[in-house]
Design brief:
- By secondary structure, this protein is α/β, with parallel strands linked by helices.
- The protein is 36% helix and 24% strand.
- The strands form 2 sheets. Strands 9-8-7-10-11-14-12-13 form an 8-stranded parallel β-sheet. It has a 6-stranded mixed β-sheet with strand order 1-6-5-4-3-2.
- Strand 3 (51-60) and strand 4 form a beta hairpin.
- Helix 2 (17-32) crosses helix 3, helix 3 packs across helix 4 (137-147) and helix 3 (104-122) crosses helix 11 (285-301).
- The longest helix is centred in the middle third of the chain and has 19 residues, at 104-122.
- 49% of the residues are buried.
Length: 302
């Protein structure tokens, strides 16, 4: 058995949003049309560190793609990343493991790419102002992904640590704010990428008709979004089953899910672009599997 390792630097060399965003749109469609095999992720809590280890397997017969991601989320990490992951790729005909691939870069980029898909289809035409609540790795990747498909006149940033917001604002030619309320004022697109367990975005702060990508709060007892805002928005999710099991924003708000993002992309549900829309992102294993397949194909060309 010749098991190959693909490092983060090798993934970074080939993976680009112009390739990844269409790939994620395809993954979402396949998931919602039940063309892939994927259980809801299983997780082991590590209470002492307020973290968890997640197991995310999936199989796409059409792509001959069989893999699983092992991912940890330790939000209290300071000098090392909060998210760490590897992806194990198997031969779909024999079950033989072929590749161990760094999963951190893929996790970071595919999450932002999926939010870009949601934003592209759900936000009102010609968005001008982007607001980002959070200043970490996902904040950066989301700004990069959305800026690759849209031209914003202004990027507004808030973080619980003002210094971090200032640093990110300097990197992206944005403006840092002292409060989340100030940052989201008049925003057409809002991204929440914090590690908060309590709501950081309230309904009365959000401009009617805005689009929100809610990416944090990945546990059933965590919330990032005001329950009134979740209930009053048109709510899209990546997976109904996962949202009802894992998302505190959905569960604790007792919110009605309007559609999976894939259902909207397939034309089975409407894109309510003139209403306030909220995409609750939890991440799908098939996104990782198809991202890994894309990286494999791109590396073959180099």
């Amino acid at each position: 058995m010749d098991l190959k390792f693909i490092a983060a630097d090798d993934v970074k060399k080939v993976l680009r949003y112009n390739d990844l965003i269409p790939q994620m749109e395809c993954a979402l469609k396949k998931f919602s049309s039940k063309q892939v095999e994927q259980p809801v992720r299983s997780a082991v809590r590590v209470k002492e560190a307020n973290g968890f280890l997640g197991l995310m397997p999936a199989y796409s017969p059409e792509d001959e793609a069989l893999a699983t991601k092992l991912v940890t989320f330790f939000p209290q990490n300071t000098d090392v990343p909060t998210h760490n992951a590897i992806i194990a790729v198997f031969n779909s005909k024999t079950g033989i493991p072929e590749i161990i691939m760094d999963g951190e870069v893929i996790t970071t980029m595919r999450t932002a790419a999926v939010s870009a898909v949601a934003t592209q289809h759900l936000c009102a035409p010609n968005p001008q102002i982007l607001a980002v609540l959070g200043s970490g790795v996902q904040a950066r990747s989301h700004i990069q992904a959305l800026s690759s498909i849209m031209s914003f006149n202004k990027i507004k940033i808030w973080s619980r640590t003002r210094k971090n917001a200032d640093i990110l604002a300097g990197e992206v030619d944005g403006t840092a704010y002292d409060s989340a309320q100030e940052a989201v004022k008049d925003a057409d697109v809002i991204i929440t990428v914090t590690s908060s367990e309590k709501p950081v975005l309230k309904k009365e702060w959000v401009k009617p008709g805005a689009h929100i990508n809610a990416v944090g709060a990945c546990c059933p007892d965590w919330q990032e979004i005001d329950p009134d805002l979740v209930r009053s928005s048109v709510l899209y999710v990546d997976s109904r089953d996962a949202a009802l099991k894992e998302s505190g924003d959905v569960i604790m708000a007792k919110a009605e899910i309007f559609a999976e993002l894939g259902e909207m992309l397939l034309g089975l549900k409407d894109a309510k672009v003139h209403e306030t829309t909220l995409f609750k992102s939890l991440g799908l294993a098939i996104e990782d599997v198809m991202s890994a397949k894309l990286v494999q194909n791109l590396l073959k060309k180099t």
